[in-house]
Amino acid sequence: MRCPALFRPPKPHVIPTPSTRCFMSTIADAGPSAQRPQTKPSPESEEELRRKRRTEWKRRQNGQSFLDHTVIHVRAGNGGDGCVAFHRELFKPYGPPSGGNGGRGGDVYIMPTPHLTTLSSVPTRIRAQHGGNGQGTWQNGRNAPPLIIKVPLGTIVRELPRDDPRRAQDEYEAEAEALQGLSPQERRAKMREKRWVHYPEYADDNAQREDFKHAERLLFAQERERRRMRRLRAENPIYLDLDKPEEAAEAADPNAPLGHRRVEPMGHLIAHGGAGGTGNPAFLSPTNRSPKWATRGTEGERVSLALELKLLADVGLVGMPNAGKSTLLRALTGGRARTEVAGYAFTTLNPIVAVVRVAEDGSFDGEAEGAVYDETRVEEAHERELMDSGALADVLTRNQQRALESREGLDDPFAALEAFRFTVADNPGLIEHASANVGLGHSFLRSMERSHALVYVVDLSGPAPWDELRVLREEIEQYKPGMSAKARMVIANKADLLAGTGTDGDPASQEEIAEARAKLQRLQEFVAAEMRVPVEDVDGEDVPGRHLDVVPISAKYSMNLKKVVRLMRTYVEEARENASSKA
């Protein structure tokens, strides 16, 4: 079988077989074309884009790789070309047409997975494989495998509208741009070249045949129907809320038959692969016993998607920079959350989620009396001193500790006691005028839109923690109206003076203790008077009802954390019960 390519690559691709000759060709790439006309963005949109780029630059410092929103351009695979071939064998020099059909292009799916926590692993340009070309002796091309894009749980997928400047051209717009500036004869030749495969040296002869003209009219009618379906789909753009992992129907059914292969979930289809071309046997008719043309495969769909990650955290911590949110997260997890703690603002640049495990008696994993969680540099310096002094020479390594626990059957000592678990998200500091991109802005608040409860964290050692509360509530409302209604608790951190401990660890004076108690009292009065959260009555109207709990703690010295965990568990249980009742 001989399969010379007519356009690209220039050299013919020869496949010798004793029985058949198959002629296929591939279309050359379209040449450079004019830029697509775009509307000039307004100064306000340019300023908004500049602010977003500046914020992203800030958040990517110090090697941070967290990414919670991105735009991807997806292209499904093109269908394979059909083949023009005629059967040849001994004593049969003029056999029937035997060209195979092209294979289907690869579809593109998107599937959420709990194993990812950021969108940084998702490429911005995604292209599925093309279908295989048909060959002689009625050999059809191979269908391309589907391509699955894996994204974290909590990702929202939106298709970009046509007026969005970030959107790439679809398959029909790209073809229209490639045909601009051509004469009618050149346009027709270009369109035929893209849609038909001809037997060598028979392109002009085929164009004069009535059978070919009839086949061409049918082909364009099918293409018009595909364009119509594409326009109908554009009226309902893609919108997916991937907040649950995909599960096959057989896996969810307990009565599914045994011994059968389970169907693996593939996710949601976002781009259809192109259909394969038709071989020349499909054009055999009583008036044309030797069709010398075949169709090419159609192009796969192209779509531009905006991905936005909203973390699935049960409780979100909101506070000013350096309020002690990272220290609190470390104290709640027993140091498992490796957040950086320092005495300067904006130590945390991206949201961090950790798991809190609670026992029936209210104790939580990592709870330890007298545990101190200092700044990261202080703890690293202390560990370095112990290493240099040789105090850690006989300490087991992490692998040795795991091996010892596995031998003793203590893989997870807290697993037998665990009765409830929930997740807590530590977010970057929020300051006044964050909506105007001051500091890190407030775009990272999207990670808390799904939180069941919000917890304000304020610095009780500051001059006016009530002013911090007012600023936090206003900034949250400016980001999304009504979001502040999720607030359930106010944590007054750095309340060491209430326990008689000064900021440097020395005993505090009576005047300092009295001042701290007066400040806490005023904070409680402010919360009771101005921080009430409206709730809906039976008629659906907002009435001032729920008040916020105020809990003084010391995250550094692990003081009063058991009450915080108990209240957080109550909030999460109520939210989950309400969600299950609505479902």
Can you offer a commentary on this structure?
It is a single chain. This protein has 583 residues and is α/β, with parallel strands linked by helices. Helix content is 28%, strand content 19%. It contains 12 helices and 22 strands. The strands form 7 sheets. A 6-stranded mixed sheet has the order 16-17-15-18-19-22, sandwiched between helices. Strands 7-4-14-9-11 form a 5-stranded mixed sheet, with no helix packed on it. A 3-stranded mixed sheet has the order 8-6-12, with no helix packed on it. Strand 18, helix 10 (465-479) and strand 19 form a beta-alpha-beta unit.
Give the SSE map.
Layout: E1 2-3, E2 13-14, E3 20-23, H1 43-59, E4 69-75, E5 84-87, E6 108-113, E7 125-127, E8 147-152, E9 155-159, H2 171-178, H3 184-195, E10 196-198, H4 203-207, H5 210-235, E11 239-242, H6 249-252, E12 268-271, E13 293-295, E14 302-309, E15 315-319, H7 325-332, E16 352-359, H8 376-389, H9 398-407, E17 418-426, E18 453-459, H10 465-479, E19 487-493, H11 510-530, E20 533-536, E21 542-546, E22 549-552, H12 561-582
Parallel strand pairs: 4-7, 6-8, 15-17, 15-18, 18-19, 19-22
Antiparallel strand pairs: 1-2, 3-5, 4-14, 6-12, 9-11, 9-14, 10-13, 16-17, 20-21
Key phrases:
alpha/beta; 12 helices; 583 residues; disordered N terminus; 5-stranded mixed beta sheet
